[in-house]
Amino acid sequence: MINSFALHVPDAELEPEPLAPEQIVSGTPEVTGKVVWESADGRQVRGIWQITPGVVTDTEADEMFVVLSGRATVAFQDGPVLELGPGDLAVLREGDRTTWTVHETLRKVYTVDLSPEAAEDADR
Q1: Interior CA angle at 31 toward 25 and 35, to 5°?
Q2: Going by C-beta distance under 8 Å and a sequence separation of 6 or more, which residues neighbour residue 111?
Q3: Which residues, in sequence order, are bridge partners of residue 109?
Q4: Are β-strands 89-92 and 31-38 bridged in parallel, bridged antiparallel, or unpaired?
Q5: Which of 15, 64, 68, 120 lies 20 to 30 angstroms, CA to CA, from 51?
Q6: How far apart are CA 92 and CA 64, in angstroms?
Q7: Which region, left, alpha or beta, applies to residue 11 given φ > 0 means left and ψ of -120 to 50 means alpha?
């Protein structure tokens, strides 16, 4: 097992991660990603994620990410609106309901902490 590594994120090849149809509000956004590390218990995940332009809804996990490229507006139900672009760091709380309006294909690197229940659901 390799514990330390380096990866040139802009050139990383990502795999399709289909959106549930009910998440798509408008457009034809496509999501791709790559998990680069996962804890043995599946509760911590680190990776790369990308979404093409469109509008989608989501229920968030505990996540911290940095935007590498692209632009998006993230509106929280009953909360703030974040304008995200290259170099921005964002923190999301588990259970936050969001609407992502992706203006330019957005690529981010992230770390997610899953609750035990969410980790079990991810394994299914």
Answers
A1: 140
A2: 44, 45, 46, 63, 64, 65
A3: 48, 66
A4: unpaired
A5: 120
A6: 6
A7: alpha
Q: Of 55, 57, 39, 65, give the one whose Cα is nearest residue 119.
A: 39
d(CA 122, CA 91): 21
Q: Determine the Cα–Cα distance for residues 78 and 98; give it in Å rounded to an integer.
A: 10
- Cα separation, 108 vs 89, whole angstroms: 9
Give 40's DSSP letter: T
- Give Dmax over CA atoms of the chain in angstroms: 44
Residue 30 has pLDDT above 70, yes or no: yes
Quote the pTM value: 0.89
The one-letter code for the residue type at 56 is V
Residue 6 is classified by DSSP as -
Q: Is the pLDDT of residue 2 over 70?
A: no
